[in-house]
Write a structure and sequence with these properties.
Number of strands: 13
Helix content: 10-25%
Number of helices: 3
Shape: elongated
Strand order of the largest sheet: 11-12-7-13
CATH class of the largest domain: Alpha Beta
Order of helices and strands: HEEEEEEHEEEEEEHE
Length: 187
């Protein structure tokens, strides 16, 4: 049975070369692949690092379900930040073109979709900061070090190919997510 102190804190092991720092209202993480800053509720959570581990401690009574969900959510955020900064993050999308051949390319920080449903002008979407895209045949592979930025870039690409005023059962053209943003496998 867990005690009150066990329920009020969470300990996460850190990979080597990853560090966390809490500034007022901001959690800053640095690792081999880059740096990430994220808003942090420092009024209800305390983060300390020591001996290759991060300890998250609740400053509010841990008896409530909402307090426990906040603690577990931030523990998952810290694990994702640490994993993303050491291994990297990847998402895969599939290009589906049933009616017109679609051309997808990367130009700088934008993904450009040409000839979508035979349209005269290309559609484009900006990639989120820290996200790179590569087009391999009918796959678009997004990679980066922040799981939230890679996931949001994938959502923006799906949204750019959203079809309006056509029957979606017939016109299934678009770019669709087939593998969510996840940590890359260790080599």
């Amino acid at each position: 049975m867990s005690t009150e102190t066990d329920r009020a804190r969470e300990v996460i092991a850190l990979p080597p070369k990853v560090s966390f720092e809490v500034k007022p209202g901001v959690l800053a993480a640095k690792g081999p692949l880059g740096a990430i800053e994220r808003p942090f509720p420092s009024d209800v959570l305390e983060l300390t690092t020591a001996a290759g581990a991060v300890t998250l401690r609740l400053k509010i009574p841990p008896g409530r379900k909402r307090a426990q969900s906040l603690l577990k959510t931030w523990a998952a955020h810290v694990r994702n930040l640490a994993g993303g900064l050491t291994l990297g993050v990847e998402a895969r999308m599939k290009v589906v073109a049933a009616h017109f051949p679609m051309k997808v390319s990367v130009r700088g920080e934008e993904l450009v979709i040409e000839n979508f449903l035979g349209e005269k002008f290309p559609r484009s979407t900006r990639l989120r900061p820290g996200t790179r895209a590569a087009v391999e045949g009918d796959l678009v592979i997004l990679s980066g070090h922040d799981v939230e930025q890679v996931g949001q870039s994938a959502a923006n690409i799906e949204r750019a190919t959203h079809i309006r005023d056509y029957d979606p059962r017939v016109f299934q053209d678009g770019i669709y997510l087939i593998e969510r943003a996840h940590l890359k496998e260790a080599a």
